Amino acid sequence: MEEGKVKRIITLSIAALIANILMINTANANECWRIERQLNEAEYRLRQGGNQSYMKMWQKSRDHNAEELPKCLKRFGISNPSISVANGSGAANHQYYANEALVPIDTNNPQLQQVIKTCNYWIQQHNQNADENNRVMRNTACENVNRMRRELSNDKPQEQFTPVRSLKECAKPNNVFDNEVKECMQGLREPK
Asked: Are 176 and 52 in contact (CB under 8 A)?
């Protein structure tokens, strides 16, 4: 009887040890995943643009996280730079994508043709390297195709931007660019 208790205690101890190791490894992966997510966010914000102080802030964040991510991966012995953390809602690893077909260029509108070419470029990039950045760029480019097709099918006139003044003449302090600057460049507003 005593021998059975000892075996149970040893089994429970081993199970507790394994559970601790798994929890530590999950915490390690979560830390590296957090850094990777912050790096992706900074790169996304930089692509969106903004004033000088905003851009400096996101560049600093990007540079810091780009420096920290390899250190985190090395520290925890994680070799795959694309980290996936299981959250219980289904398959956590989305690295394997089927090759997506290109969008046919079935229009005579030169603007729509260019938007479709951009969408197809990002589809090809995503098919070759299915990472988060390529997925976001693909989705954005292809959403623009759908939006433009909707606008054309609604016979909504396309906005024609013809600058009358230079950007330098109309720019606001701190390099802020908004609709007022655009209207100034079109000659609808006086420079400030």
From this structure: no
Task: Read off the pLDDT of residues 138-176 as tens digits, 9 standing for 90 and up.
Answer: 888 888 888 888 888 776 555 666 678 888 888 888 777
- Tell me which residue has tokens 């589809």: 123
Q: What is the pTM of this model?
A: 0.34
Q: Which residue has the tokens 């429970």?
A: 12
| Alpha carbons 43 and 33: distance in angstroms, whole number | 15
Query: What does the H/E/C string look like for the chain?
Result: CHHHHHHHHHHHHHHHHHHHHHHHHHHHHHHHHHHHHHHHHHHHHHHHCCCHHHHHHHHHHHHHHHHHHHHHHHHCCCCCCCCCCCCCCCCCCCCCCCCCCCCCCCCCCHHHHHHHHHHHHHHHHHHHCCCHHHHHHHHHHHHHHHHHHHHHHCCCCCCCCCCCCCHHHHCCHHHCCCHHHHHHHCCCCCCC
* Residues whose CB falls within 8 Å of the CB of residue 144, separated by 6 or more in sequence, listed in order: 115, 118, 119
| CA–CA separation, 129 and 123 (whole Å) | 10
